[in-house]
Write a structure and sequence with these properties.
Layout: H1 3-8, H2 12-25, E1 30-34, H3 37-45, H4 48-51, E2 56-60, H5 65-68, H6 71-81, E3 86-90, H7 104-109, E4 114-116, H8 120-129, E5 134-139, H9 146-158, E6 164-168, H10 173-182, E7 190-193, H11 195-201, H12 207-213, E8 217-219, H13 224-239, E9 245-247, H14 259-268, E10 269-276, E11 280-289, H15 298-301, H16 317-321, H17 345-348, H18 353-360
Parallel strand pairs: 1-2, 1-7, 3-4, 3-5, 5-6, 7-8, 8-9
Antiparallel strand pairs: 10-11
Helix pairs in contact: 2-13, 3-18, 9-14
Bound molecules: iron/sulfur cluster.
Iron/sulfur cluster (SF4) binds near residues 316, 330, 333, 342 and 346.
């Protein structure tokens, strides 16, 4: 993307024009969910909530990968780091997410070999350099991250790196949207769909969900003009009773998405049922390693049975991820739970709704 594009989509005059249109067209009370954590952060950073009419409520959805990772997966990461002769590699945010009794960070302070990496390829490299250790990568993320993890596994397989494995906790976005639509008590009038996930999946990945639920849906980029434009489109769809699946990010998202990335992913992974924090098990919403890649599955390698463990007492992350609460409605918000003393993942991750509220609200 050229700099010209970024400047255009941050243009204050253009943003004002869209806000004016929103104010003119918006009549109904609407609850619009930004599915993606990056959108949540961008909405707060640019003060978008404050320029919308009072009848428009923005809800943060289940699109922060660290936030939706089930407690049992966090506990599994921690359990794995206590095994003999292992190196745990992880993205930075995960290290502070509280498990049932510890965090990866605490275990590191007590001597476990836990290393923050920026890519799965860093983890593969660590495995290459430490043949006497088992190197485990904590695999979280959505459709955007999974292809790189698949590529990392293919690299390890091609190089016969046998001391590398992952604990797969990757997730798929469309099944979560369907799960929200099926949950009693959830009221959503439109989805702001994630831009970067859609770059990989393409628009067509949402067609089944849209056709089944006829919920206004707009794919959006991350600049303020992108987001305001998507909100305007969702309001217009609602006001005119013309629900549609629209792509407001055509400079990056195509109908079919990144076919190469999709092929790499499906070479290594296949959909499986997965547990999401707060939401529970969602059919075909996770990514399991295909049988031929089971030697790269840490839980199989270490013969670990992940056990369901309760989420932290009093933490409303699950309800926030479903749009049933906002962070200020959690009794622990800004009291027991702060970015320095997070109780749940939504306060840890930079993409978490609680962290965004704390920082910008
Ligand atoms: Fe959980 Fe803390 Fe957010 Fe409350 S404020 S929902 S305890 S992360």
């Amino acid at each position: 993307m050229s700099l010209k594009y970024v400047e255009e989509f941050r243009d204050g005059a253009l943003a004002k024009q869209i806000i004016k249109k929103i104010l003119a067209v918006s009549k109904k009370p609407l609850r619009l969910m930004e599915v993606c954590g990056t959108h949540t952060t961008s909405i707060f950073r640019h003060g978008i909530r404050s320029v919308l009419p009072k009848n428009i409520t923005l809800l943060s959805g289940p699109g922060c990968p660290v936030c939706v990772t089930a407690q049992k997966d966090i506990d599994t990461f921690i359990h794995l780091c206590k095994q003999d002769d292992v190196i745990i590699t992880t993205f930075g945010d995960l290290i502070r997410v509280p498990g049932s009794g510890s965090t990866l960070g605490k275990e590191k302070a007590e001597g476990a070999d836990v290393r923050v990496v920026y890519s799965v390829f860093d983890a593969v490299h660590i495995a290459r350099e430490n043949k006497d250790k088992q190197v485990i990568f904590c695999a979280v993320g959505f459709e955007t991250t999974t292809p790189t993890i698949a590529a990392g596994i293919l690299t390890a397989a091609a190089e016969h790196i046998r001391n590398f494995c992952i604990h797969p906790a990757n997730k798929l976005t469309p099944p979560a949207l369907a799960a929200l639509m099926e949950t009693d008590g959830i009221h959503i009038d439109g989805f702001i769909l994630p831009g970067h996930v859609s770059v990989i999946t393409g628009t067509h990945a949402y067609k089944d969900t849209f056709e089944k639920y006829q919920i206004p849906s707009v794919i959006a980029g991350f600049e303020p003009v992108d987001i305001l434009n998507a909100i305007l489109m969702l309001i217009e769809q609602n006001e005119h009773n013309t629900p549609g699946l629209q792509n407001a990010y055509p400079r990056a998202v195509s109908d079919l998405g990144n076919i190469k990335a999709q092929k790499i992913t499906s070479q290594v992974f296949e959909p499986c049922d997965a547990v999401w924090r707060g939401i529970g098990s969602i059919p075909s919403s996770g990514m399991a390693l295909k049988k031929e890649f089971h030697p790269f599955n840490a839980t199989k390698k270490f013969n670990i049975q992940a056990i369901d463990t309760p989420e932290p007492a009093g933490c409303a992350c699950g309800k926030i991820l479903m749009g049933l609460k906002n962070p200020t409605q959690c009794a622990l918000y800004k009291k027991k739970c702060t970015p320095m003393t997070p109780v749940g993942p939504c306060m840890v991750s930079s993409e978490g709704a609680c962290a965004a509220f704390y920082r910008y609200n």
